[in-house]
Design brief:
By secondary structure, this protein is of the alpha/beta class. It is 37% helix and 15% strand. The protein has a 4-stranded parallel beta sheet, with helices on one face.
Length: 137
């Protein structure tokens, strides 16, 4: 049986975009890759607005399934996705890396969180398709 590739979504505080991406990766691409998230300086908790919007849009309870984590807590990963927060990650071995360049919705109205969630959903679907198409071959 082939092991699914491990994808890590990384952002500075691991409290909003990367948490949303981990949840949506699990929701929409669990048959293609295993989702993780982490940060260089994790927050104490997941952004409450992200928690609420992901619950409203997708029925996923972020705070019961996930928590902010340090990069050191990640397993060996195959794909590293940075979220666009200018993170200069320490050396983190992976087979493929890309930056999604997403603006941080923190402190903005729900519409910004909703737009971010929908953008992440589309990017997760596209990443799953590229992995299925041989991105890591």
């Amino acid at each position: 049986m082939q092991t699914l590739p491990k994808v890590a979504f990384v952002c500075t505080h691991n409290s909003c975009r990367s948490q949303m991406a981990e949840a949506l990766g699990r929701l929409f691409a669990a048959d293609v890759f295993i989702s993780y998230s982490a940060g260089t300086h994790p927050a104490d908790q997941i952004n409450p607005d992200a928690v609420r919007v992901i619950r409203q849009l997708y029925g996923v309870e972020l705070q019961t399934q996930q928590r902010p984590k340090l990069l050191a807590e990640l397993p060996a990963i195959d794909v590293l996705i940075t979220m666009g927060c200018g993170v200069e990650c320490p050396f983190l071995p992976c087979r493929y890396r890309e930056d999604w360049d997403l603006s941080d919705p923190t402190g903005q109205p729900d519409e910004a969180f909703t737009q971010t969630a929908h953008t992440i959903e589309a990017k997760v679907h596209a990443l799953a398709e590229r992995i299925q198409g041989g991105l890591l071959a």
